[in-house]
């Protein structure tokens, strides 16, 4: 017995040594010795330009017939008037009418070009929320140190921020080291297939290969992770895929006074309940694992120990992350019932009940795999399952964190926001960057704006706004990014 106890004690001691060794072996992945960016005077005219851009109602609707083309034409004209040097010195072309592509030739033609992208369409105001807005969404009000309105965070902030930076550099007769493309889509909010996809296809047809692409995505989260008292600059190195399945159940119909054991609604409800009770397995891979690698050294000792020993404590980490919606979404393919249609009268049994279930697909899974999983879980041949192809996209590959592009972004963030921790992560939504996979292997998603949990509710919500200071920092960031590339 004593021998067995000694063996157990030795095994525990060995385990403790291994755990501690792995923990103390972790080193910071933050760039050191980055010189803070020099002070840059950004004119207040930049704020006025963003305000004026917000006033132009470039709203995207799922029903394309509702598109007000005069507003999109007005926006394109506004850019030409506001940024004369950009439009006179850069090659400019319109792609599929409202997609905008600029080419700024660099000095060193041996370097691959980089591409900065964004979109200038916005979502409509949700009907019935008018009184919830402190300032109306298309007034472009400048008040209390903020610019208010649709697009101030999603995503005219990028379009105007990039153009302000380039115009600023052109006034100094600056020419970048490498060639830059600027690409601005007009329909990102409804798929990007007429804007970004067409621009990407044009570059592919010209055999352009890019060093890196930067789109919207991550932000500088000021209240990001428990135990870390610094802001975290999140660079999206991958994004989840997207698909929607339509489930249809058929019942007998008839009078509600004599219902069958299970109606079409009951059958559909049972299917949805099965799905929500059996979520996709959680995985600490790709963007989630990169995030943990970059944050581990900044965390309290206990959390750091767990992150350093995921081989043993994986289930503990998963249980901790699963306690929040954001943490859960980064670990698994998510299941979200979003639309249900059934019935027309309270005393009539509906023959048909239809539900739409939206899935955001973790890298490593696939659209086909989602469909197969749903069929297996529901296990009911009476439920018709269809993949709605309109917006399908597979999850992206994970971009390299050792590449020129990531290092350039990392260095620029550190120079402009010295106190922020830089970390790669998985974007749980969809961006236009996904269309550029054939012309670039390193796609990054980052918006240089400080945001807290409350601010993250503003894009697509009410009271979307950006502070004057933050927008000036956006312009400064793009100036430094171009100069550092």
Kindly report the average pLDDT value.
95
- Coarse morphology: globular
Distance between the termini: 67 Å
Low-confidence stretches: none
The quaternary structure here is single chain
What is the count of DSSP helices, taking H or I runs of 4+ residues? 14
Structural class by sheet pairing and helices? alpha+beta
Can you summarize the main beta sheet? 8 strands, mixed
Strand-residue proportion: 15-25%
Please estimate the helix content.
Answer: 25-40%
Number of strand segments: 17
Radius of gyration: 25 Å
Properties at a glance:
four-stranded antiparallel beta sheet, 485 residues, alpha+beta, eight-stranded mixed beta sheet
Describe the structure.
The model has no long low-confidence stretch (mean pLDDT 95). This protein is of the alpha+beta class and 485 residues long. The longest helix has 24 residues, at 2-25. Strands 1, 2, 3, 6, 7, 8, 15 and 16 form an eight-stranded mixed β-sheet that branches. The protein has a four-stranded antiparallel β-sheet with strand order 11-13-9-14. The chain has helices at 2-25, 45-55, 69-82, 84-89, 156-171, 196-205, 264-277, 287-295, 301-308, 310-321, 325-329, 367-378, 404-416, 468-483, and strands at 91-95, 99-104, 114-119, 142-143, 146-148, 180-185, 212-221, 232-239, 241-250, 254-255, 334-342, 348-349, 352-361, 383-393, 421-427, 443-451, 465-467. The chain has 14 helices and 17 strands.
